[in-house]
Design brief:
Elements lengths: L3 H7 L16 E2 L6 E7 L6 E7 L5 E10 L35 E5 L5 E3 L3 E4 L5 E7 L10 E10 L2 H23 L1
Parallel strand pairs: 1-3
Antiparallel strand pairs: 2-9, 3-8, 4-7, 4-9, 5-6, 5-8
């Protein structure tokens, strides 16, 4: 057991990750290019600038796909982080966004913004305007042993899409109301 203890404790030490080599400048989404893609590396220590400035009052769709893991003893997962923990990979806390897996995709608006979980996809209606950033949900200083990446697409809902969604929601609401009257 005395020989095994240093090995087990070494798994708890910090392992700093890499930095992105390209510097991305965020801009508002253009009407002629309403979608932007970016790759988020599990091993990256810093937040990934998506290249998008999200604007208060607009609605965005975020979709992510890919595979990563947050340590050599942890399972490979998608951006939702579900199934990351194994008998040798435990949830000891320290995530950036609590109650989300260490292997989940998370985001924030602005460099000093509050972090929130994204997972595989989400609709975002920002309450502030700012650059959109992504990263794996593992605490700072522990990314060096991570592997993989996820590709994230950010698109803005057009006025036509918002009207279509409102129409669908209204139709569903009317059906539910009619069914409840029966």
């Amino acid at each position: 057991m005395s020989r095994l203890l240093p090995f087990l404790l070494s798994g708890l030490s910090a392992c700093p990750g890499i930095q992105y080599t390209d510097k991305v400048t965020a801009v508002p989404m253009a009407t002629d290019k309403p979608k932007t893609d970016t790759r988020v590396l599990a091993k990256a220590e810093e937040w990934r600038n998506s290249g998008v400035i999200v604007e208060k009052g607009k609605k965005y769709s975020i979709k992510a796909k890919g595979r990563w893991r947050h340590g050599p003893s942890c399972a490979w997962t998608g951006p939702d982080g579900i199934g990351a923990y194994t008998p040798l990979c435990w949830d000891l806390g320290g995530q950036i966004v609590t109650r989300w897996s260490h292997a989940a995709l998370v985001a924030k608006i602005g460099e000093g913004g509050s972090s929130f979980g994204v997972g595989n996809e989400m609709e975002l209606s920002p309450e502030e305007t700012g650059a959109l950033y992504f990263r794996i949900n593992e605490g700072l200083g522990f990314n060096g042993d991570n592997e993989g990446h996820v590709d994230v697409s950010v698109s803005v809902f057009s006025a036509e899409e918002r009207i279509k969604r409102l129409s669908i929601n209204h139709q569903v609401s009317r059906r539910v109301h009619k069914d409840s009257e029966r």
